[in-house]
Design goal:
About 10% of the residues lie in helices and about 45% in strands. With about 150 residues, the chain is mainly β. It has one domain. The radius of gyration is 16 Å and the shape is globular. The termini are far apart. Keywords: Signal. This is DUF2155 domain-containing protein.
Length: about 150
């Protein structure tokens, strides 16, 4: 009896990951320690890490908040990026929308939700070729975000 209930709950959680709702003010955990990155010079960006499972290569890249960034066939949009207050343990949380734009096919929305840097498996992208995870939220100095490493 417990197994079907767990499966129903998991199916419900998986369905909410691709819901069409706008990003909430705070992640579902409602952590009162989370806040916007303090204002400063540059742009707010999320540092992400992508894994191409076919080539087994990882790439770190910066995705400016409010703009779309490409990783392979994926278009990644960061709607918000939050960090913990200095007194709390370090944490970065980003609201990502990930769309797969395969050539010759219609765009497919794969993920829309909060990703936590400290627990990437809590809310992960489920894709056969790519993995994407949040590393941190920061301010990119200068007029353009730092280049990919």
């Amino acid at each position: 009896m417990r197994v079907p209930l767990i499966l129903v709950l998991l199916a419900g959680l998986a369905g909410t990951a691709v819901a069409q709702t706008p990003p909430p003010q705070q992640p579902a955990s409602a952590n009162v320690n989370l806040r916007q990155i303090p204002d400063g010079p540059g742009k707010r960006v999320a540092e992400l890490q992508g894994l191409d499972k076919v080539t087994a290569r990882t790439q770190r890249f910066y995705a400016p908040v409010g703009e779309s960034t490409r990783f392979g066939t994926l278009a990644i949009t960061v709607s918000d990026c939050l960090v913990n207050v200095p007194e709390a343990p370090p944490e970065s949380v980003a609201y990502l929308t990930i769309v797969d734009n395969k050539p010759g096919q219609a765009a497919e929305k794969l993920f829309a939700g909060w990703m936590f840097a400290s627990t990437p498996s809590l809310s992960a992208l489920d894709h056969g070729v790519y993995d994407v995870r949040v590393l941190s939220c920061t301010m990119a100095q200068g007029s353009s975000p730092p280049s990919s490493r």
